Amino acid sequence: MKNKKSKTVYLISNGDYRDSAGVVCWPKQEETLKAVKAAFKKLGVEPDLVTKFDPKRNHGFLTRQSEGAGVFAKLEPTAPVVIVLSCWAYSHHVCGPLQTHKGPILLVANFDGTWPGLVALLNHAGTLERLGVKHSRLWSDNFAADPAFMQKLRTWVEKGEVAHDESHVVDAGKLKIAPGAMMFGKDLAADIIREKRIMGQFDPGCMGMINAIINPAKLGAIGMPVEYLNQSDLLAEMDLVSDNEAQDHLNWLIKKGTTFVWGTDGRTELVHEQVISQMKMYSAACRTCQRFGLSSVGIPYQIGLMRQCPASDLVEGMLNNQDRPKVVDPETRKPIAKDKAIPHFNEGDMGSGVPQVLMCDIYERKGMPTETTLHDVRWGREYDGKFVWVFLISGAAPPAHFGGWNKTTCYRQSPMYFPLGGATCSGVSKPGTITWARFYERFGEIGMDCGTGEVVKVSESDLNDRLAKTNKEWPIANVHIPGYDRDQLMASHMSNHITIGYGDILQELVATSLHLGIPTRVAGSVKDKLL
Fold first, then answer.
1. How many whole angstroms separate alpha carbon 514 and alpha carbon 494?
2. How are beta strands 199-202 and 432-442 bridged, if at all?
């Protein structure tokens, strides 16, 4: 470390809010802790685990911000700390207390699909950047046996920080954007500033994703002001939707060829009542968008709504799809946003909501399908000579991305995370060119990263293995982004989420963002074509 007399680093296990998840994930965390300890000892550094196994809870994770604050209260303010991540964790448990910590901070994660520490690392890194906290990030699939990881870990031990090569990203202002695209962006940006795109966000931050919350002053300054909404109002509106209206929505989905994997035991299987509740949420969300004049909406299901109603995921996929059941405004008796997608940003993540709205506007003006979604950057590995990412989300992907409702399957959500059930909106994204983006706020300034890639068709055996290693009941996109492979994305990506839509609209997106005053970077090999 900067203080060379210090030969001890302090390891912290951050985890989920829910003890049920902590119990399931603790064996993997112990394995990861062992590997991280071995890596430090190989460098002559003594690791000290300050979060201990609790026999009453049967795990050793932090599960509250107050617990994280208690841990840091006992550490020296300049102590070197390492947040060890092997599975999903709520970043604010530690990121809040880290705002006043003065010592070196390192995020370390495994790179694994089944135990997605890498997803938590990206969330923690994005959150710390949002909060203006300097830190370093490292990842590996075999730690002490990984020479590149060990070299960077040594640098952190000696200097208290480690930097990564970011030559894969370039300031979009340095690129040669086509004149037609620049004019397109200028016109669209002017329309957004004049007419506004009001973003509806229900109770943000409830999963600890502080990087999902953007300063409303900065959003308003780019013509995209926030309408803050309350989850309880969504529930109240659901109560006003009739059983007949909900059943009509379900009948529409079934007639379209949607497959529902029904069961009889609602505790572990998908049952009719769960989906009817979801159909009521769908109508309620559409009514809310109409009432407040919203361009888009974000519903964070965890952790508040999970105690009140079935999952929001099927609802989110329906909203993101142009082809969806008709919802009539109870006051005007007119259809709401007829034949249009209503961009829904999963988990209330405004960092996805902004590019989803921009992309939807661009697609509509260009006469292209307007569907967008976010995915978790869940995992990735080589396939046919390319690094192919597994982009996966709990259900918000639109069926148009799979090829339609007849290629959509609805499974019950996992009882561990979704005790009241509800259907996913699952399918395999079809091959094709995509544009991707991520909007963010870091150290007080907004920004956008974006690029292009392709959804790859993998073999059936590879697809099944990818699903088995992650969550087989969730929608998947197997994506290759040239020049934005594992180490490039992990080094610079500003969230655990990534936004995608079909078709190459990169130049129009860049031009619109620049005319709105959003500092923009282009990532991956596509930048080389525009230099």
1. 19
2. unpaired
Three-state secondary structure call for residue 181: helix
Judge contact between 345 and 352, C-beta under 8 A. Answer: yes
Residue 448 burial by CB count (10 A; 0-12/13-18/19+): exposed, middle or buried? buried
The three-state secondary structure class of 366 is: coil
Q: What is the DSSP string of 266-311?
A: TTTSB-HHHHHHHHHHHHHHHHHHHHHT-SEEE---TTTGGGTSS-
Residues 424 and 394 sit within 8 Å (Cβ to Cβ): yes
Q: How far apart are CA 246 and CA 318, in angstroms?
A: 13
Q: Give the whole-angstrom CA distance, residue 312 versus residue 424.
A: 8
Neighbours of 142 (CB within 10 A): 11
**pLDDT score at 2:** 44
State whether residue 265 is helix, strand or coil: coil
Residue 332 CA to residue 345 CA, distance in Å, equals 27
- Distance from C-alpha of 273 to C-alpha of 34, rounded to nearest angstrom: 45
Handedness of CA 229, 326, 245, 310 (dihedral sign): negative
Q: Decide if 43 contacts 157 (C-beta within 8 A).
A: yes
Q: Is the dihedral of CA 250, 255, 258, 261 positive or negative?
A: positive
DSSP-H helix ranges across 293-408? 313-319, 350-365
Q: What is the pLDDT of residues 25-78, one digit of tens each?
A: 999 999 999 999 999 999 999 999 999 999 999 999 999 999 999 999 999 999
Half-sphere exposure of 474 (CA within 13 A, CB side): 24
Does 519 score more than 60 pLDDT? yes
Residue 3 predicted with pLDDT over 50: no
Q: Which residue has the tokens 């809870």?
A: 57
What does the pLDDT average to over 354-371? 98
DSSP 198: P
Tell me the one-letter amino acid at 132.
G
- Find, among 4, 41, 34, 77, the residue nearest to 153 by Cα: 41
DSSP annotation of 351 reads H
Helix 272-292 to helix 231-238 angle (10° resolution) is 110
Contact between 519 and 445 (Cβ < 8 Å):
yes
Residue (of 420, 329, 376) closest to 119 by Cα position:
376
Residue 1 pLDDT exceeds 80: no
CA dihedral (418, 424, 430, 433) positive or negative: negative
On the CB side of 2, CA atoms within 13 Å amount to 10
Give the domains, in start order, of the chain with CATH numbers.
Answer: 8-159 (3.40.50.10940), 172-529 (3.20.14.10)
Instruction: Look up residue 239 and give its amino acid.
Output: D
* Strand locations in 27-80 (E): 46-49
Query: 3-state SS string over 29-82?
Result: HHHHHHHHHHHHHHCCCEEEECCCCECCCCECCECCHHHHHHHHHCCCCCCCEE
**Residue 480 corresponds to which tokens in the numbers above?**
């290759």
CB 229 within 8 A of CB 236: no
Say whether pLDDT at 4 is over 60: no
User: Are 351 and 438 a contacting pair, CB within 8 Å?
Assistant: yes
State whether the Cα torsion 367-368-371-377 is positive or negative. Answer: negative
